[in-house]
Amino acid sequence: MIATNLAVFAYEMTLGRQLEPFIFQYGAIPAQLTQYGFTADQAGRLTSAMFLHGGWFHVLSNMLYLWIFGDNVEDRMGHVKYFIFYLLTGYIATIAHVLTAPFSTVPLVGASGAIAGVLGAYLVLFPRARVLTLVFILFFIQIVPIPAVIFLGFWFVLQVLSGMAGLAAQAAQGVAFWAHIGGFVFGMLLVKLFARRKYANNY
């Protein structure tokens, strides 16, 4: 998944002036989904949008999260189920964004909705695992192992607060926080259906 995302981004970097039309052609545009519904064309856009990114920081930060959390979730699900789970939570994340901005004509791109689903699954499967985290203390940087339930819980609360602030201000945001929220919540709800049976009671 990481290699595919990076390969697509590398292709984006070769497009030059054609990049913007490319994003509008293959990104998920809420207003179109609202108008046309879940057609084959819109389903294709929802899929392709998950593998497009808007810049180096966007793609590298997403791939860092996917690298840290994705392999353990994939191990619990198996390759095929993990792939289906990843796409499904990505679709749900996009729909969550569309529900909060149904008439937006700004293309939605990025893997973060699907990755949020992976984070939700990780929280359910490995709540006591520790995540090595950079912590800034005055002028010093410390690497601190933080329990996943605290790390991901804080991340989720931050997404909710940011999403609520955007709705209250009725302003367009550069980050689709409600896609993150939708992906995370449904990742938590769906993980038990996708985890291998021998792990079903090990939550």
Query: In angstroms, what separates the terminal alpha carbons?
Result: 25 Å
The computed structural class is mainly alpha
Quaternary structure state of the chains depicted: single chain
Number of helices: 9
Which architecture does the CATH hierarchy give at level 2?
Up-down Bundle
Let me know the number of strands.
2
SSE pattern? HHHHHHHEEHH
Low-confidence stretches: none
- As a percent range, the share of strand residues is 5-15%
CATH class: Mainly Alpha
Helical coverage, percent range: 55-70%
Biggest β-sheet strands, sense, barrel: 2 strands, antiparallel
Spatial strand order of the main sheet: 1-2
* Form type: globular
CATH topology: Rhomboid-like fold
Q: Over all CA atoms, what is the radius of gyration?
A: 17 Å
